Amino acid sequence: MIIAHKDFDGFCAAGILILAELDKLKDLHYATVGYINKFLKKLAVNDKPKEIYLVDINADNSNLYLKRLTDLAVKGFKINLIDHHRFPYDAQLKAAGINVIRNTNICCTQLVYERYIEKINENKKQKADFLLCLGANDDRIITPLVEKRMTRMRTETLFDVYACIMSGLQNGREFLSNLFYERDKNGVGFTKKLFENATNRRFILEKIKKETLNKQEVIKNVRIIHAYTSYIGIAASYLIEQPNTDFAIAVGDGQANISIRFKDFMKNLFRRNLQAYTNIRVSIRSRKPINEIVSGLAKKYNGYGGGHALACGATIPIENINEFLLDLTQNFLKLR
Asked: Taking the model in full, what pTM does it have?
């Protein structure tokens, strides 16, 4: 079984594992940092011990994540954790018999690529190169290895990479199927369908960027935006690129258009867990290491947080969100 983060880096890393044929599995699952602990609990209850590869997966609640993984190891699951996020409990994971492969300086796709490329057949290595470049470009971690692979690619293949990124693929399984089997012969690579998605995606991105700049709050070198939850990562990433900006905070309590709000309302209507209505998601980008500040303040306000040194997230109870944002901003303003 492969469990991958539900983003490009996650499913590109998963794709390389599949190419390496470590797993004859058709069993591929995606998870977010908020869902992974629930998924692992269900796995422990409903599945028999098996080998698991977790790629590009971190969790909002690190302590609970440690418990879920060690519980699975005790039950006999063979766990391989391949990740590039910072995590404070690797020693405990290894003591429980979990195979931990971690490097916080590269994207997870490159971590998997370097580890398993020699296990991939020669006729499939070009596909692994494609996945490496796709995952690295989306995660914005372009190393010399990635640059070298990019320079080998034809213009058409490079177009495929950027069309994939711009399309904001929603179905990783469909993407991997298209990549591994047959490309669209009537387009450039398999991008005929992707190009249509990319065009729509570009329109949405430009709209989000415009709204982000119009609604942002600026406090010295800190920019804050209240955005719809699904857009906070995009909004924070866009704001950090603005001039004279060291910190960008996107708060998931903004208003979406009526169709999206109605869709989410119906999706959550019959859920017993009302977390969607009681917690606020926050996405943060920075030019200075902030992971420890974010995780510490999230815990202080009864939430969870963490991630990369320069890109973090947090989930905060709605009643504490204002105090958290004030404290967070004050801490950022003190950094030099």
From this structure: 0.78
